[in-house]
Every structure is written in C-alpha cells, then in structure tokens.
Amino acid sequence: MKILFIGGTGTISMAITKLLAKQGHEVILLNRGGRSNELPDGVRVIKCDISDEADAAEKLKGMSFDCVGEFIGFVPEQVERDFRLFSGRTKQYIYISSASAYQKPLSDCVITESTPLSNPHWQYSRDKIACEEYLMKQYRENGFPVTIVRPSHTYDERSVPLGVHGDKGSWQVVKRIMEGKPVIIHGDGTTLWTITHNSDFAVAYAGLIGNIHAIGQAFHITSDESVTWNQIYSIIADELGVELKVCHVSSEWLNAVGPYDFEGTLIGDKSSTVIFDNSKIKRAVPWFTAKVRADQGIRDTVRYILAHKECRTDDEEFDRWCDKVVSAMEQAKKTMQ
C-alpha cells in the first residue's frame, strides 16, 4: 500500500514507519526532515512544513494514497486543512488523538471507546476532542474515511516514562535517583497507570491500515498491563542498583506551587487510575497483543539512555525546584510535630 505520514519520526510514528517499511509498504513522510538519518531504506521524505498549505498542496499535486496518517494535528484548524488537502485523495485517514480526552474525573476506571470525552483540566485534550468531532462530522456528512486512534502513555527507548518531570524530559529524575536524591511522585504513588512501548503500538496501528472495520471508528491502543507509579520508579532504581528515595506530594499541591503547570498532565491525566479495555482493537486486529512488559521496557530504556549521551539533558532548574519541594514537605512535617 501507498502510505503518507504527516510527521512520521516521533516517538509513536517512528516505530510505525519502520514496521511498515519492513512489511514492504511504500511509505512517504511529509515533514521538515528531522531524524531522517534514522529512517530505513526505501522510506521517502517530502521536506515540507505542512502549515504552509499552499506549498504542501503543490508538493502533493497529483498524488493519492491508500492511507494518510496524521501525527502532528493538535487543533481543529490543522485537521480542517487536512480535509482540504486529502478529501477524495485517500482511502483512509488515521488521526492520532489522545486517551487523555477521556472523561476526567472518571466515573469508571475501566475505559472503553464509549467512555465520554471530557477533560476540563487540559486544553490539549479539549483540542483533541474538537479535532475528533470535526473529523467525525466530515465522515458522517461527506464520507471522509477517518479512523481515530487514542494512544495513552506511549514511550520509546529515548525517554523513561515518568509522572513528574521538568521541561527537558525525564533524565534529571533518573539522575536524581542515581545520586541518591529524593524524587517526587504525585499522590501516594498507588494509582494505576498504563504505559505502552511504541513497538507494540505500531503493530496495532499497522493492523488498522486498510482495515474495513476501522473506517468511521475510534480505537485506543494500549498495553493490558497496569502498574503503580511507585512500581515504575522502583523499577528504575532497581535497574540503577540504588535505593529509591521518594517524596510523595499531592498533584493539586504540585500544581498550586508552580512554576510548572501540572493541571493537565497530572490532575487531568496521570493522577487518575486508568485501566484500558482493549477488546475493540483486538477484534479489529486479532493478532495484536502488547508484548513488552513494563519492567522490561523501563529497564531497556534506562540502559539505552545511559549508553547514549544525546538522550541525557540536564535540567538544573527542575533539580532546584525538586529540592525546594522536598524541603518544604520536610518543614511541614516538623511544624506538625
């Protein structure tokens, strides 16, 4: 099949790009050219900033596709542009939404695709909902062949999946664990969370391409395994061979003290216990089963980061903030004694 990805080199999409190329599909990426050196042979890149719609239209002139995958559409204006560019030119359009769009607070921790979409805590999620609504409207009224995919916390070898970190990623938290410093875990660390390795996600996504049961449908793709945040951080420390020192702090307090905005990422997402029912994606893609267990994936990621300096970005500002939070919590304990 002839497949066009808008993006195609991110955490989720790179794994899909590599898998589809291995399967023998014609894969074309429309992006600015980042990470092109990591692409497998045969994958073609059309260098373009798709926000320049006229330029994109010119570079795609005369082309049609079996599937177009949108990985970098975050607001309705972007999917409206896609509709203009690809209506009548693709047999399927797969939009990456987000599982954070599901109802918060949850009325039931077991999430299916029929769980209501509503997140008052995170604009990112509300924008994804708006994108979904626009695309489904185009499906109902104009037959636009949309499939919606909602990932949850999907990770690759370059970043350890964590709850509380700074703007420069997860490395500083890993570094604090290595140095024996307390790390911040939101809440009491016992809420359940689901992390999914991108290699597993890719298998399910690829199975939706050209799938007659996927048009006009929404699917989430996650692992069936749930782990606590305490377990996630403990796995990291165990792989590093050090003792884990933890400072548990409520998500509401972390968001209130600033300067980091945790309302969306914690209160509207990671502080909730979530268990995903993957029955629907397994009916559509019967061979899909997430194979990378959480502890295995986390250990592999820690090893990769330690072996690749480019994945280690220090964040001194976040480190100082962590020290201040830990000190404040210790002072509060002393005050109450």
From TrEMBL:
Membrane spanning residue stretches: none
One Pfam family here: Epimerase
Start and end residues of each NAD-dependent epimerase/dehydratase domain: 3-213
Protein name per the record: Nucleoside-diphosphate-sugar epimerase
Species annotation: Ruminococcus flavefaciens
